[in-house]
Amino acid sequence: MIKGLLSAVAGLMILGAAVGAESILKAEKVGEGVFALVGPTGPRLPENFGLNANYGVIDTAQGAILIDSGASKEAAQLLESEVKRLTGKPVRWVINTGSQDHRWLGNAYFQSQGAEVIALEKTVVTQQRLGRGQIESLQTALGRQMTGTSPQVSTKPISGSLARLSLGGRLLELRYFADTHFPGDAVVWLPTEHLVFSGDHIYVDRILGILPESNAVTWLSAFEQTMQLSPKTIVPGHGAVCDASKARRDAGDYLSFVVTGVKRFADDMAGVDAAVKALADAPQFRHLANFDDLHRGNVSRAYLRLESGE
Predict the structure, then answer these.
(1) In this structure, is residue 271 part of a structural domain?
(2) pTM of the entire predicted model
């Protein structure tokens, strides 16, 4: 009887996790056996478990591949429940596209379940530098949800800027073009499907965030190199699944606006205040979520980075 009760409780816990995941992430089929998990574009909240980003699921004959692992152990469990719902298979590989918290802090959970975490050395270096601080910061936003979370990186990071991978007949590439939102950010390219999981190279529907870690100049270069893949389908790091024209309007054109603008003021040594004042009114991007909260800071940080020569 006790054994049966425990089994029932375990089943309810799994069901609860699945319902929780479905209420946060919108699953969208983007190819045969390939799914985007589209998260909200707002801030990290306990209600969304810090899953305010997009993730990917790839079904293969030898298990499932998960693109990015969530912001915590609990978030990772929610992602795992979605993978099982969509594929009926365990996560065999977790691929990290970047170093922002919700892209990789679920690694340790998946490693404990026997999954292999795959990342480029360039990405791992940044994760190792920032992990502890990211967990401390998320404890303020997510509270108890961070319990049991540790910053575990890939145990066999891949050197270089391109890794060609295959699992269960599914071919994919992990590519680094240049530093973007964080140093070492990468994209996952599925050449057969002409589909890219862009990670934080591309944001749509909401304005991208230029952080102290970001380099707007090289980010623009990485965006253009991503576009040179000629993807038919883009799963952006944030926002709805889109095509190349939407990605250019919401991300590429914005990066170009900021980079071109701050270069002009930096070349004249006009100062950051002058740059921010001149570039603050950008009506062509005002429709993007979070514009009022982020745009001025984006211009300021892009200018200061350029002025410093880094």
Answers:
(1) no
(2) 0.92
